[in-house]
Amino acid sequence: MKIKRPLAFNQLSALLRVALGNTEEPILNSENIDWSEIYKESQKQCVVGIAFAGIEKIKHNIPKRILLNWYMVSEHIKQGNEKIYQRCVDLQKQCYEAGLRSAVLKGAGVGSLYGNLSLLRVSGDIDLWVDADWRGVMDYVNSISPNTEFDSKHTHLYQWNDTIVEMHWRPAVNNNPLYKRALDKYFQYEVDGQCRNSIVLKADDREYVITAPTAKFNVIYVLRHIYGHFLYEGVGLRQIMDYYFVLKSFIDSECCQGDYRPEVIQRMRDLGLYGFSRALMYVLKEIFGLEDRYLITKPDKALGDVLLQEIIEGGNFGHSAKENQVYNEGFMHRMMRRVQRRAHLLRYNALGTLCAPIYKISFLMWKRKVIRKYNLLK
User: Fold this and answer.
1) DSSP secondary structure string for all residues of 194-223
2) Which of 18, 125, 207, 286: disulfide with 164, CB 3.0–4.6 Å?
């Protein structure tokens, strides 16, 4: 598969490598760089803040208007992260007082692995994994803000107008019957340890203590999260960079003493993630220059090129892909659009794609019962 890489994407990739510590990037030495295009690409991939960290390391005459705007957006990202950090602390304290243990998934939990770049990672919503079944989570959420916005893994908590909170009873789901039960069992086995793992989020002179998944868990979970978005929506460089730091944190940690690869690879195989992990390793090495010692599986160029093309065309969560730029669509139209996307990627998840409509129908029947149970009908 021949990949068409726009110049702005290649230059952004180089700028991100500079931010990550690479000092030699010849593509950035040209005097005729269109910085406005690189900035637009950084927005598309949702890595504006990290790219600005690269800007601060190179000596270029960047137009002041672009530089000032880039700086202001980066400062806004920092402020947003500090707010998210505090909200995570408040939310977990609130849950603990209600008798619920929890762990912050993705977001702030993964962002903490970025080191000095943590505050420059663009935050989304707060994903909280609660150590309870769906009834326990729904009871808690509906005691605060009753709503009908839930799926088979989480519901929304509307506590703050400026922060979206997703309360999970399971971190992810799998439509493939070969791996669905294995994934559920894995989460059941791991939930206790993740809710006990304390980490410190740093913001200037302040520290925020939360519980969040371990590096070992994130190697599997974040991989599954990225794979899900690859299949159903799309992924961008922000999600790929998350895994860059997850891998480095895991392999540099004490739990990787000895030969850790067989256990991790077997877990990937058990959950149907091994093939996709090889595609991701290829992209991590190709775009971010990840060293070979951090590559858990052997890179697969063929599938890696498919993933890379999706990243280039769709950007963050596939928002820039043509098939996702649809507004005011109905339920059936949205479902058919997703089926078409799954069909496009059929050979990468054939059984899961074929079973998706069945699981969707069973979920809608279950959701109807839940709505009646909690009297959520308007």
Assistant:
1) HTT-EEEEEETTEEEEEE---HHHHHHHHH
2) 125
Residue 67 corresponds to which tokens in the numbers above?
């530089």
Whole-prediction pTM = 0.90
Q: How far apart are CA 129 and CA 101, in angstroms?
A: 9
pLDDT per residue over 215-234, tens digit each? 999 999 999 999 989 888 88
Lookup result for tokens 């990202």: 77
Given the candidates 3.30.200, 1.10.1740, 3.30.460, 1.20.1070, the CATH classification of the domain at 82-213 is 3.30.460
Domain definitions of the chain by residue range: 1-62, 82-213, 215-325, 334-378
Reduced to 3 states (helix: H, G, I; strand: E, B; else coil), residue 258 is coil
Residue type, 299: P
Tens of pLDDT, residue by residue over 16-63, are 999 999 777 778 877 778 999 999 999 999 999 999 999 999 877 889
Amino acid residing at 77: I
Angle between helices 177-194 and 350-373 (to 10 degrees): 60
Q: Which tokens go with 312?
A: 């280039």
pLDDT in tens, 113-158: 999 999 999 988 999 999 999 999 999 998 998 877 888 899 999 9
Backbone angles phi, psi at 171, to 5 degrees: -70, -30
Q: Which residue reads 């059984």 in tokens?
A: 351
Note the pLDDT tens digit of each residue in 311-370: 999 988 676 665 555 556 665 666 666 666 556 566 666 566 666 667 777 777 877 877
Closest to 216 measured CA to CA, from 186, 172, 241, 238: 186
Walk across the sheet containing 163-168 and list its strands: 102-105, 126-130, 163-168, 154-160
Distance from C-alpha of 12 to C-alpha of 262, rounded to nearest angstrom? 35
Tokens found for residue 338:
């997703």
Which of the pair, 100 or 61, is modelled with greater confidence? 100
157: β partners: 165
